[in-house]
Write a structure and sequence with these properties.
The complex is a heterodimer of chains A (414) and B (340). With 414 residues, chain A is an alpha/beta fold. Chain A is 42% helix and 15% strand. Chain A folds into 2 domains: 15-135 and 299-352, D-Maltodextrin-Binding Protein, domain 2 (3-Layer(aba) Sandwich); 137-298 and 355-409, D-Maltodextrin-Binding Protein, domain 2 (3-Layer(aba) Sandwich). Chain A is built from 17 helices and 11 strands. In chain A, strand 1, helix 2 (41-50) and strand 2 (57-64) form a beta-alpha-beta unit. The longest helix of chain A is centred in the first third of the chain and has 18 residues, at 2-19. Chain A starts with a helix and ends in a 5-residue tail after the last helix. Chain B is mostly helical. Chain B is 71% helix and 6% strand. Chain B has helices at 3-32, 60-69, 79-82, 89-98, 102-109, 113-144, 148-163, 166-176, 182-191, 202-229, 234-242, 247-258, 260-275, 279-283, 293-302, 308-339, and strands spanning 34-35, 41-48, 51-58, 74-75. Chain B has a two-stranded antiparallel sheet. A two-stranded antiparallel ribbon of chain B has the order 2-3. In chain B, strand 2 and strand 3 form a beta hairpin. In chain B, helix 1 runs antiparallel to helix 16 (308-339) and helix 6 (113-144) runs antiparallel to helix 13. The longest helix of chain B is centred in the middle third of the chain and has 32 residues, at 113-144. The chains are: A alpha/beta (414), B mainly alpha (340). Chains A and B meet through helix 3, helix 4, strand 4, strand 11 and helix 15 of A and strand 2 and strand 3 of B. Strand 4 (121-124) of chain A pairs antiparallel with strand 2 of chain B.
């Protein structure tokens, strides 16, 4: 008996010694951590860093996929929940909060998170619901060589962008000088959200789910979008961020409004023509219609903890993800992957656009329970206007009607 | 076969169909007449790294009680079916009253999402069903006329469109018809218009989807017809030849009537398949120009906020539409077998 216990102890000690290199003491020794989230380099790094906390009794797994929003809610509704944490962004947290599957983190922050900077904590109605770790936004990306050919400064407003675009086309330098993720659906709706905010519009009557986009700002936003699309590849309604990036890499585009998190790969010499890689430059987001607030939205990415898991698992999840987004994450490889909200982060030139967006006082994407419904209605409804089949006011009226139908079904409107 | 033997033989299938087909349909039916509870929205302050803003959230306490009392949601009867996203009776009536001409009424009808989706779905089905069956038939006739040695490889190549995973096949074509792709550039060159884009024009997108649908589903008709052609009685064909019947006469008066039951069967299957057209729209990124009923269900379920009741109602309407479409063929089959 004595011998047996001793050998088991010995074996455990041996195993611990063998894996000591990879292990980190995160403060948790047991529990189950299972992370679901979007799939891009920055989030891969966070999940990898969190999985360093794994020990004999503490398992850390992750499921990172572009389809995370289709599975995160279902994966957190069970009891116990399959996923103990979802990595979410400004818009995707809303549906999880709507369905009450997230655990308020106040107690865990009080017990284990004293060293998390206050401004990283996402509080909703006074309760901490998520911990942000990176910022993202769309901003200007331009080819400095092409702009130099006509002696133009990088545009500060969308009106300037359109003027420069027309000159580039007239002079025969680029046939379709402007790019943008205008694919019907989520991307197209996002561009309207940017443009409408830039024109100073409000999406809803304050404090209510009553939509209010059929107004002068809405019409102006649509008209600006149409003027831009006239300078785009005619297939613009099928171009998402990936297709737009491909057009950029092919050297077919001179200016675009693009996500900060997707710009790094365009500036890398690896995989790009030197002509494109060396001349791709990041600029500040543009304003529109004489507005002061840039026509873009600020986004944060952050992690959450599921409600329907044991306190032990919740604690382990909190500690593992806290480690995953701690200063230990930052190294030469991860530094440029995002605009990290982590102590010790040093912005690279590629991150200038997002830093400028924050400095210019851009608005965050609205975190409203019914914003997702409006976003979907916008994504379906704008294409006929850009195709010239509907006028702006009818388009907006139809989008409002589609939103109201959906909001009535979901119980937001009577 | 005695009835009891038949029943015992059929029972496992019947059970599986009941569990995996009939019950889900009942469940969808139930979900389509319930909607989520009314949400109590309260104003709160949200703080993020970018500052604090006034915002709203759902009052969880208020909704939880409702949820526990009636977990299915609130009963709304046929409300979802007649709302603007579905049959839209109210909007239809207004369009009817407001429109002076049929053309104007049609234009207003096409702003309603359900009818727009229905228009594409029906067009797609009406073209692709006969075209793919006809193409399959001609390919089968051609292959059947080949020397035996060549038949194997030809059959393999003819089946390729069906063997290639639909999403992959469609994606390859999607790249080819891009305005910078090989087909897209060829069309621009032929038309002499550098700005012509297959993906930017609604009518060209519809044609592209119909051509793709015909191409990718013709092999099914081909396989079935090819098998059917092996059963055509040779002596009838030979005696017709002795009587001086041409190849066309033989096809028209012997082969086609012989294959009629197969054709009916294929029309049934193809109408069902094509009425549920979905994959081409996703892989051709064509949703700005063409939406089908199935795509409609998908987009209800894929949004950030899922519309389960709406998706359920569209599913029920799709099933109802199929029953209406299939009823002539079903009645005909029923009569045929009833007589026999």
């Amino acid at each position: 008996m004595f011998y047996k216990v001793n050998s088991a102890f010995f074996l455990a000690a041996l195993l611990a010694a063998g894996t000591a290199q990879a292990q980190t003491n995160c403060g948790a020794t047991s529990g189950r951590v299972n992370i679901v989230g979007n799939e891009f380099p920055a989030i891969r790094s966070v999940a990898a860093q969190a999985s360093r906390c794994q020990t004999g009794n503490l398992t850390v797994r992750s499921n990172l996929t572009a389809n995370h929003q289709r599975i995160n809610l279902a994966g957190m509704q069970g009891n116990p929940a399959e996923y103990t944490s979802a990595i979410v962004a400004t818009s995707s947290i809303v549906e999880l909060i709507n369905n009450n599957v997230l655990r308020p983190l106040d107690a865990l922050v009080a017990a284990h998170g004293a060293d998390i900077p206050r401004n990283q904590l996402i509080t909703i109605d006074g309760r901490i619901m998520a911990v942000a770790f990176m910022a993202n936004s769309q901003h200007l990306v331009y080819r400095k060589d092409l702009l130099a050919q006509i002696g133009a400064e990088p545009p500060k407003t969308y009106e300037e962008m359109i003027r420069i675009g027309r000159t580039l086309r007239e002079r025969g330098i680029v046939r379709n000088p402007i790019g943008g993720a205008y694919q019907a659906g989520w991307n197209l709706a996002q561009e309207f959200v940017n443009m409408y905010i830039g024109h100073g519009g409000e999406f809803f009557r304050p404090g209510t789910p009553e939509v209010a986009i059929n107004n002068a700002q809405g019409i102006a936003a649509l008209n600006t979008m149409k003027a831009l699309t006239e300078l785009m590849n005619p297939d613009f309604l099928t171009h998402d961020s990936n297709a737009t990036s491909a057009e950029w890499r092919a050297g077919n585009v001179a200016m675009m409004n693009m996500w900060g998190s997707r710009t790094g790969v365009l500036m890398a010499r690896e995989g790009n023509q030197p002509q494109v890689a060396d001349n791709t430059t990041v600029g500040a987001p543009m304003t529109v219609g004489g507005g002061r607030i840039p026509a873009t939205t600020l986004w944060w990415d952050g992690w959450t903890v599921a409600r329907n898991v044991s306190d032990d698992d919740a604690r382990a999840t909190f500690l593992a993800l806290k480690h995953g987004t701690s200063p230990a994450l930052l190294n030469a490889e991860t530094m440029g992957q995002a605009v990290w909200m982590i102590a010790g982060y040093q912005p690279a030139p590629v991150n200038k656009g997002v830093m400028d967006t924050m400095a210019m006082g851009a608005k965050p994407y609205p975190m409203l329970p019914y914003m997702g419904l409006l976003h979907t209605a916008l994504g379906d409804g704008i294409a006929p206007f850009l195709q010239g089949r509907k006028d702006a006011a009818t388009t907006l009226a139809d989008i409002e009607a589609a939103y109201r139908t959906a909001a009535r079904e979901r119980g937001f409107l009577r | 076969m005695r009835h009891t033997v038949f029943l015992r033989f059929f029972l496992p299938t019947a059970l599986a169909m009941l569990t995996f087909i009939a019950l889900p349909i009942v469940s969808v039916l139930v979900q389509s007449v319930y909607a989520p509870h009314e949400r109590v929205v309260i104003e709160v302050e949200n703080c993020t790294p970018f500052g604090c803003v006034k915002s709203t959230v759902i009052d969880q306490e208020a909704t939880r009680k409702l949820q526990e009392e009636r977990p299915l949601g609130r009963f709304v009867g046929g409300d979802i079916y007649v709302d603007r996203s579905h049959l839209a009776f109210g909007e239809l009536a207004r369009a009817w009253d407001g429109a002076a001409t049929w053309h104007e009424f049609g234009r207003r009808l096409m702003t309603l999402p359900f009818y727009k989706a229905l228009a594409f779905t029906l067009t797609y089905m009406l073209f692709v069903t006969p075209l793919s069956i006809m193409l399959g038939f001609f390919v089968a006739l051609a292959v059947n006329a080949l020397p035996r040695l060549l038949r194997g490889p030809t059959i393999f190549f003819s089946l390729l469109p069906m063997i290639v995973t639909p999403l992959v096949g469609a994606l390859i074509l999607f790249w080819m018809v891009d305005s910078r792709g090989i087909i897209g550039s060829a069309v621009q060159w032929l038309a002499g218009d550098d700005d012509l884009s297959l993906k930017a024009s609604t009518s060209l997108t519809w044609i592209m989807l119909i051509v793709y649908g015909t191409w990718s589903t013709a092999p099914f008709a081909f396989v079935v017809y090819y098998a059917g052609l092996q059963t055509v009685p040779q002596d009838t064909l030979e005696s017709a030849m002795l009587d001086g019947a041409t190849r066309w006469h033989r096809i028209r008066y012997i082969v086609l009537p012989h294959l009629l039951p197969l054709t009916t069967f294929m029309f049934l299957i193809k109408i069902m398949d094509n009425f549920r057209v979905f994959e081409p729209i996703v892989s051709f990124n064509a949703s700005a120009h063409a939406q089908s009923l199935s795509y409609f269900i998908y987009s209800d379920l894929a949004g950030e906020t899922r519309l389960l009741s709406s998706a359920a109602a569209t599913s029920v309407l799709t099933v109802a539409g199929l029953l209406v479409l299939l009823s002539p063929v079903l009645v005909r089959t029923w009569r045929q077998f009833g007589k026999a």
